[in-house]
Amino acid sequence: MAHDPEQQPAEELDAAAVRTWSSLALAALGRSRTDIDAINVYPVADADTGTNLYLTAESADRALTGAFARTAPGVTDGTAPDTAATSLPEAVRAYAHGALIGARGNSGTILAQLLRGIADVLGAGPAGPAPGPLLAQALTRAAEEAYQAVAHPVEGTMLTVAGAAARAAQAAPGTAADVARAAYDGARAALAETPGQLAALGKAGVVDAGGCGLVAVLGALWQALSGQEPEPEPVQGPAVPVERVPEPCAQEEGGPAYEVVYLLEAAEEAVDRLRTALDGLGDSLVVVGGDGLWNVHVHVDDPGAAVEAGVEAGRPYRIRITHFGDERRRASAPRAQRAVVAVVHGEGLAELCGEAGATTVPARAGEPPAVADLLDAIRRAHAREVVLLPGGAELRAVAGAAAEQARADGVRVAVIPTRSAVQGLAALAVHDPEAGFDEDVVAMTAAAGATRYGELAVAERQSFTSAGICQAGDVLGLIDGDVAVIGAGLSETAEAVLERMLGSGGELVTLVLGPEAPDTLAVRLEAYVQQRHLAVDTVTYSGGRHSAPLLIGVE
Fold this sequence. Notes:
By secondary structure, this protein is of the alpha/beta class. The protein has helices at 15-38, 49-71, 88-102, 105-122, 132-149, 158-170, 176-193, 199-204, 209-226, 268-279, 303-313, 324-332, 347-355, 371-381, 396-408, 421-430, 437-449, 490-502, 519-532; strands at residues 258-265, 282-290, 293-300, 315-323, 336-344, 359-362, 383-389, 412-415, 452-458, 463-465, 468-470, 475-479, 482-487, 508-513, 537-542, 550-554. The model is unreliable at 1-7, 73-83 and 233-252 (pLDDT under 50).
């Protein structure tokens, strides 16, 4: 992030201190991620708690940075905007919202609700800095809401650590920095006691992994307010890495086999019914959020039923289903040498890229994948080397962030700046896993760069474009991302786009038809190319649901 956390201590919590807290918390979780993963034994020993907390904090930090940028729209040079333009309520609400939409796993979901509880207090307060008593109240509300979000709270976990931090904060007089220090110390003391509270931890000889991450977050809060850095090893107690033998599935441990996570747009009354329904399907149920947007996490044996329950409650999206056995087998299996990860719009394109050997990440209009989604796909590819195809200019920053995190895990990653699915198809066509990594990347980059791309879209409202004024319902023909043609129908506009694209030459036209395109469109366009450009070949694919009406590639 552009923000530099090195600044004078705030003593009281204001918007600038929240931003510093976020940066420091993300850095602290990044440093301790591997160690926290290693002590993850409860509720499922899948060695991902540190990673989930880091990805949740990363999403929160990204949202917070965006909030500061929106309140200082004149900043265009990449520097950090003036923090004075953002109020404390705006900052904490953005921070909590980012954690909610990016929460990962059981621990990340609880962290999101803790931040939500803080925002419920500070977000409703004055715009000025929060004094110590108000911060203590916020930490108390955070712990209360986290307990309420978990269907069956268990002591000796992250919840216990949060509760202890809140009690210590309430008992501390003084500034917000004093309260943060008390919360941090209370959390550390509670964390050291967790092996004696939860049998799974005591048996393994470790402290709770989620609580360990929460201690890091609270230490970052104290550092942001006081300017003093926590001890290099802030977590005391018997935390040591645990050697685990991968097992075929979670069912052999007596637990459900699948983790189901999704965001849900629904009314609070419907979510109450959803909690009851999901509680009867499995365990580790955590539902966090509010104001119509929720993050749902549950472990079940029937993932379809868990998703159907979400459909009955409202609109679930960003649905992720993970089979614990698959994750364990993947972790224990030897890595492939090289893999390709591609972001795709459309089920047909996903199938096409999958057949070509790529690990795919679905993307829909208005729902672009996050850093965590790309990082998940890189891990699923389970290779030493990964070529990442973002499929859109707007996703290059996200792809770069995912690649950076994967490199920290020891994976060699190259991002090819594909700006359209047809460029990704061109890159996949020349992919050679037997070639050297650099040679393969150069060839794929060259193939993508040599492919001009076009797209048809339907205007939603009147607007000014580079080709003139369009009206709602007009068909827009885009070439290399800019509107070049405004037409009344798909066929006529597609022909005009093709003629312009082939005007500078080409040997191969790729057509990807979306669900709105009539069956006759492909036949008409193939005939059009054949009649006017005899030396040009044409290939046609179905984009499937969630793809654009028509994508065009010219190589």
